[in-house]
Amino acid sequence: MGVKVAIAGVTGAVGQEFLRILEQRNFPMDKLVCLASERSVGKKITFKGNEYTVELLTANSFKGIDIALFSAGGQRSKDFAPAAAKAGAVVIDNSSAFRMDPQVPLVVPEVNPEMIGQHKGIIANPNCSTIIANVPVWPLHKANPIKRMIVSTYQAASGAGQSAMLELIEQAKEVLAGKPVTCKALKYQLAFNLYCHDSKIGPDGYNEEEVKMAKETRKIFNCQSIAITATCVRVSVLRAHSESINLEFTDPITPTQVKDLLSTAPGVSIIDDREKNRFPMPIDATGNDDVYVGRIRQDESIPDNRGINIWVSGDQIRKGAALNAIQIAEKLL
Predict the structure, then answer these.
(1) Judging by DSSP bridges, how do beta strands 90-93 and 67-70 pair with one another?
(2) What is the pLDDT of residues 26-64, one digit of tens each?
(3) Which residues participate in catalysis according to the annotation?
(4) pLDDT confidence bin for 2, thresholds 50/70/90
(5) Where do runs of H (alpha helix) occur along the chain?
(6) What's the rounded Cα separation, in Å, for the pair 165 and 82?
(7) Are the C-beta atoms of 180 and 171 separated by less than 8 Å?
(8) What percent of the chain has pLDDT over 90?
(9) How does pLDDT run across 241-299, given as a tens digit for each residue?
(10) Distance in angstroms (rounded) separating the CA atoms of residues 99 and 115
(11) Beta bridge partners of residue 248, listed in sequence order
C-alpha cells in the first residue's frame, strides 16, 4: 500500500520540483493532495499523467495524510504544520519556522539521518545555502574536526522563488533594450549586478541568511564549538547557488586527502581540473542532485597545513530544498 502525500505550496518553484522528483524517484505513493493559498485554488496540476485540482490549504487538509511536504512560507508553516502533525502526518517543512526549535530535527540526510527517527511530527529542512555547504563539508569534518569555517555565497535568483527567476529574465531583456528595470519580486536590479542577500539585516550587521548558515550548521553537525562566519550575496544567476568555503582543521590536511574523502562522499561530485581551469559552475549543478566541488587547495595563510579552500555549486531548488525533503521522506519509510 502506497503513502498518502500532501504538498503545501504546490504551485511554487519548490512545490513544482517536489512533483518532478517524486515522479523521477518513483516515490511509493497512492494519493496526492495539492494545497496552496487562495490565489491558486482551482488550478490544475498534472502528475504522472493524472490531473489534480489545487485545494485551499487549511488546518483540515491533512486527514489521512502520511507525509506533508511544506513549501508555503514560514507563516503558513507556523499556522498549519502543527495541525498536519496533529492529524497524524509527518511534516517535512522547507521554511525557517521550526529549524532552530530544539524539539524539531534539522536534517541533511547525508549528514545526520539518525535524527529523522526523533521527530515529534515535524522535521525541518535546512536553509538552501546550509545544505549545499554541509554536504561536502561534513565528510571532511568527520575525518578531521573543523575549528573555523568562512563561507561566501553566490546565490541565484531561484532562492527568491519562481517570480524572481522570471523577473531576472525580464530585467536582462530590459537592460539590453535600454529600458527601465522592473524590481518587484527582486529588491534591486539583479541583471548584470549583485547585491547583499535580500534578508533582514540585524543590529550586528549580519543578514538573516548569514545567521542561519552559522546556527543551522552547528545544530546539524551537533557541534557548537565550530566558529562560523558567512557573507551571503545575491548574484545574477538564474538557478543554483555557489559558495566559497574556507576551512581551518584541527590537524594538518592536504588537498589530496580532501579530494580522496570527497570522491566517495554521498551527494558529492568533483570537478577539479587545474590544467583546463575547469571547476564547478551553476550550469553544472542546475537540474542535478549532487553538490559539485572544486578549487580544492591549501590555504597557505593557516599554519601547519591546517587550512583548505573549496568552491561548491548546488541546485538550490533541488538539493537545496525539494530533493533534501524527499530524501528525508524516503528515509522515513
Answers:
(1) parallel
(2) 999 999 999 999 999 999 999 999 999 999 999 999 999
(3) 128, 241
(4) confident
(5) 13-24, 74-86, 128-143, 162-176, 208-221, 255-263, 282-285, 323-332
(6) 31
(7) no
(8) 98
(9) 999 999 999 999 999 999 999 999 999 999 999 999 999 999 999 999 999 999 999 99
(10) 13
(11) 148, 307
Domains and CATH numbers, the chain: 3-126+321-332 (3.40.50.720), 130-316 (3.30.360.10)
Residues 6 or more apart whose Cβ sits within 8 Å of residue 164: 157, 158, 185, 186, 190
Q: What is the largest CA-CA distance in the chain?
A: 62
- Quote the CA–CA distance of 327 and 210 in Å, as a whole number: 25
Please, what sign has the CA dihedral across residues 239, 68, 59, 127? negative
* Exposure on the CB side of residue 30, measured as CA atoms within 13 A: 4
Which amino acid, residue 197? H
Torsion of CA 294, 271, 323, 184, to 10 degrees: 70
Cell of 117: 527517527
Question: If you ran DSSP here, which 8-state letter would residue 102 be given?
Answer: T
Contacts of 81 (CB under 8 A, 6+ apart): 68, 70, 91, 93, 97, 98, 122
Phi-psi region of 73 (alpha: psi -120 to 50; beta: other; left: phi over 0): left
**Residue 78 DSSP SS3:** helix
Provide the β-strand partners of residue 35: 8, 55
Report if pTM > 0.90: yes
